[in-house]
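For reproducibility, we list the full input for the S-adenosylmethionine complex.
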Amino acid sequence: ENGDQTKEPACFSSVIPGWFSEMSPMWPGEAHSLKVEKVLFQGKSDYQDVIVFQSATYGKVLVLDGVIQLTERDECAYQEMITHLPLCSIPNPKKVLVIGGGDGGVLREVARHASVEQIDMCEIDKMVVDVSKQFFPNVAIGFEDPRVNLVIGDGVAFLKNAAEGSYDAVIVDSSDPIGPAKELFEKPFFQSVARALRPGGVVCTQAESLWLHMDIIEDIVSNCREIFKGSVNYAWTSVPTYPRHVSLPFNIHGVIGFMLCSTEGPDVDFKNPVNPIDDSSSKSDAPLKFYNAEIHSAAFCLPSFAMKVIESK
Ligand code: SAM
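The corresponding predicted structure, in tokenized form, follows.
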């Protein structure tokens, strides 16, 4: 199960020897690189290649199919924003579903909300969960919350079978639409999400980079406008180690977007959060590092080129 430890994958050698270079058809012509101190795990699951390495500057790094999923240094930005943007936008979220997110970081963030009674998670790849528990204890700590029910399986099938109107919020913490997450970006999946949400329920999905993937974002927005009859919004944030639009290995300006939608029912004004998160509410939690009310509202401000496309859909 641990794969062939002797063969060096292309991502460790093809740009700068001793560095990891992130290459993907999702961002042709560029390869962000991080200096590798030590490779800690290399395996192949039924779904993807899994690598963990110690980097020189970003702590430990989790890589799936050659693409960085998280680093210890900047994971807070992604996990806090994908979670608190939806959950701080509705009063008293009680039942939350997470699709993907096998590292446990989103669970850690959902668990900060005292109103939440049940957290279901459907992750396709058990190896991601196991590797996270072994190498990223501060992220996988999310699995320890007693409200969590973990199901290993395909999120698409899980949502098809979910009871109608059963969730206050669905968070789709997926990898890119190449490989097992492909269907998580398609219309039938969004239809099942809408079906599983209560009236006025909210969804937040990982929605790629404004700089690189406007075509993917356009499709997601037009599907969501057809399906979600409440509100449909695009937000974004900065995550240094996510894909960027420049090719220099040392120039790091990654961004990641989120699609935030609500179903018909009580109005959800995502830009003005009604459920502020109170750091002091759960004494055992480490404090938030990235999210606050100002950055919540600011996340919905779009650059002009993106506003033009997103608002025309
Ligand atoms: N939390 C990460 C971060 O900080 O950037 C984001 C990536 S998370 C590890 C993405 C997860 O989605 C992976 O663990 C992957 O196995 C999972 N996944 C991909 N396709 C899936 C599917 N169809 N159903 C459920 N989980 C899926």
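The chain has a mean pLDDT of 89. Residues 93 and 116 are 6 Å apart (CA to CA). Both points were considered when choosing residues for closer inspection.
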